[in-house]
Amino acid sequence: MEYQDYQSYYYALESSQDIDAVVAEITSLANPHPLIFLASYRQNTVLFHNLKMALEKQFPNMQLHILSSSKENPTELIVFSCHNESVAVKGHSETEVLFHEAKHNLQASSDHEETKKELLRRFFLDSLTQLPNHYQLRQDLDSEEDYVYIVIHIDNFKLINDFYGFLVGDFLLENLANTLKSMIGSGTLYKTTGAEFAILMPENKAFYELETYLKTLHQSCKDLVYHYHDNDIFVDLTFASSSSDSKDDIFSKVSMALQYAKTMRLPYWIYEDSMAFKDAYESNLRISIKIREAIKNSGIVPFFQPIISNKTGEIVKFECLA
Whole-angstrom Cα distance, residue 26 to residue 58? Predict the structure, then answer.
């Protein structure tokens, strides 16, 4: 076999959205028996499994070898395509030579400066959805004066994750990110915590304008369902924002609005300065501190009183007061 008969091609994938384009490019090489090396930091991600399935479906006669990558992102492919139809990689030694060449290509794909840039980029990016993360959100908030901050919470995410597994949870987050991006208009979408997204809009909105926006957004999202293999994954979302005159403690204000919406089973809620949320939270916090200190210092004295049955006159249970 002549190794010059083989041409190598390098592909880097950031998310499952890149799979179709990459598979189409490999297909355009017109080689039904490609030799493919798939390098991934983790082999239990949605991207890895979807990519592997797509390759196996499109190239049933390929030779696929899995490599461990030292880089968390991206997932990489090295494809060797033979331009001489009479030549095919069959022997162990030939594959081994190309294996080492693939590893060399992967190692040479980024130099020191590129690695630094990638690390900085990754710090402000959610690796799954490729959306800016909460670090980027905080930085953007510092540079904005007039803005609207909205939180989107996936109410049933823990249930989905626990029941179907994290692969389905990741699948849901990726697809929901794409859905929300198409709906939010001029705002920027962020992936913040595990079950939450955020929207930052560069202009302020009056209360009723903001309420109309949240109502429209909720109406667009209330019947969301994603199909994963044979399962229909339904998504329940709650929205929260703030129309406070001050942007101080914006995270706390929106968090209080979100908690109120979830407690009252409302689709969305907007924090207003006239609400007593903050006073109630501070009061609960003070009481919680007092109770914790009392328990720690044995400062709680229990009193038990009997509950007597009117029919028998006997004590049937006790209640405890402190």
Answer: 10
CA distance 112 to 125: 20
The candidate with the shortest Cα–Cα distance to 151, out of 184, 122, 125, is 184
> In what helix (H) or strand (E) does residue 317 lie, and over which residues does it extend?
strand 315-321
For residues 54 and 19, the answer to whether their CB atoms sit within 8 Å is yes
Identify the helix (H) or strand (E) that includes residue 209. helix 207-221
From-to residues of CATH 3.30.1180 in the chain: 8-105
In this prediction the pTM is: 0.58
pLDDT digits (tens, 9 = 90+) for 157-186: 999 988 988 889 999 999 999 999 999 888
Answer CATH for 134-275 from 3.40.50.2000, 1.20.200.10, 3.30.70.270, 1.10.3720.10:
3.30.70.270
List pLDDT tens digits, range 207-258.
899 999 999 999 999 889 999 888 899 999 999 999 887 788 899 899 999 9
Strands (E), 160-215: 188-191, 196-201
Say how far apart CA 73 and CA 165 lie, in whole Å.
Answer: 22
